[in-house]
Amino acid sequence: MTTYVYETIPTSAAEKTEYFELKQSMRDAAYTQHPETGRPIRRVILGGIGVLTKAETPAPATKSGGCCCGPQGCCE
Prior knowledge:
Elements: E1 2-8, E2 19-24, E3 41-43
Antiparallel strand pairs: 1-2, 1-3
């Protein structure tokens, strides 16, 4: 069984979106209504699993490319 994230679809401006998880088979169609409350819902697509490998060291930032060093200004 796979765990999917779903969100409620607000039917008014005052209603807040709620997120929750449901376990179901990958072969099953996505739910369109909350199984307990009957509120309209939709499946949320999230990022998948990636493979991390050793990356090369990036080139240092330049003034034209911006600096990620913060207030120290070490990229100048």
